[in-house]
Design goal:
By secondary structure, the protein is α/β, with parallel strands linked by helices. Helices cover 51% and strands 17% of the residues. It has a single domain, classed as Rossmann fold. A 5-stranded parallel beta sheet has the order 2-6-1-7-8, with helices on both faces. The protein has a 3-stranded antiparallel beta sheet with strand order 3-4-5, covered by helices on one side. It is found in: Cytoplasm.
């Protein structure tokens, strides 16, 4: 059976990463969390007090950054310059700053080049983000745009953060943050968030993870 490349895009907290991981595991595909890559850049920039407008320092950061993905019995882990940052990149201060750094053209260019290189070297790939179907993998065999209402996404993020002990934000605060992130992502100059013209839009507001997964699996079967 032919392995295909799958692009999953969508707004913040729409379940992209969770679904992408489940699909990759079910199909024995490679999973690449592109959002984690931008979070790594942001975490490193914040630690080094590198402002988004600081071109020389940011260029040096991008030239030397090393991001690796490893999978073990506990799931996928992200390593930044040799250090496990799987939890660190999900902290609130990183979440609040990642849009500003990911909107910078040279940051996106550097990450997109790495993502496309990864795709060229792997058959059977699930990649999720905000511009996968439009910029990173415009020729992906299957493009999904996964979305849900801001209120639903905020509740999901709240429960997820509680389970991981990552945040003390209320659902109301998370809703406001998600709505602000949506607006920023959709209106940024570089790679704005939008569904590819040939993407299949799935609204998961009233669907659970199993239902979303089955919908996408049926679409994959049609492509294979």
């Amino acid at each position: 059976m032919k392995k295909i490349n799958i692009a999953i895009d969508g707004p913040a907290s729409s379940g992209k990463s969770t679904i992408a991981k489940r699909l990759a595991e079910r199909l024995n595909y490679v999973y690449l969390d592109t959002g984690a890559m931008y979070r790594c850049v942001t975490l490193l920039a914040l630690k080094g007090q590198v402002e988004a407008e600081n071109s020389p320092a940011l260029n040096d950061l991008l030239a030397s950054i090393d991001i690796q993905f490893e999978t073990d019995s506990e799931g996928q882990k992200i390593f930044l310059n040799g250090r496990d940052v799987t939890k660190a990149i999900r902290q609130d201060h990183v979440t609040q700053a990642v849009s500003a750094y990911s909107a910078i053209d040279r940051v996106r260019q550097a990450m997109v080049e790495r993502q496309q290189s990864w795709a060229r070297n792997h058959a059977g790939l699930v990649m999720d983000g905000r511009d996968i179907g439009t910029v990173v993998l415009p020729d992906a065999d299957l493009k999904i745009f996964l979305t849900a209402s801001a209120a639903v996404r905020a509740k999901r993020r709240f429960l997820e953060n509680q389970a991981k002990g990552l945040s003390e934000q209320t659902i109301e605060e998370l809703t406001e943050a998600i709505e602000a992130r949506d607006y920023y992502d959709a209106h940024r100059e570089n790679s704005p968030l939008k569904a590819a013209w040939d993407a299949i839009v799935i609204d998961s507001s009233d669907l659970n993870l199993d239902q979303v997964e089955e919908k996408i699996l049926s679409l994959i079967e049609e492509k294979e």
